[in-house]
Amino acid sequence: MPTQSEIDAQYELERTAISCGLQRLHKNTYNVESKDYASASIYGVASVDTLIPLVIAEIESTEWKIRKGNSGVAFKEIAEYLAGIEPLATAAITCKVVFDKVFSFRDDNSLLVSVCDAIGTSVEQECQTRYYDRECPDLLIHKRTISTKPVVRSKSSSTSDEL
Description:
This protein is mostly helical. It has helices spanning 4-34, 42-68, 73-82, 87-102, 112-135, 137-148.
């Protein structure tokens, strides 16, 4: 049976662990927010998980209006370009970009124009990547292998050998 001093020591150890965990959580949240990655924070991950189904429902509702012909001529133009990307991907990109921009430390990032521009750019880049992946997969495989190769320095470029 543990003594009272052992119980007190265990209690203090657990309180210290909780305190260290909170400090680490605050530090990590500050770091991701300062790097414009608020979607990777605790509140960002939880909020994005909650928002994605709602955004998907709105995207599907808009697509249905486009197919039905109730949305006007302007929506038909976008439907052609968004046909290659599923609502889940569009919703995930949108939620991530919104959190990254709105909770950014930079004042101009949270402006509506900046947020909308970033969402449009991200969705467009995803569509382009999928297009090239479908039409010319060897190009993306080649590009991925180039970008993931480690940089190897030759002995002639090393300054330590010359000293």
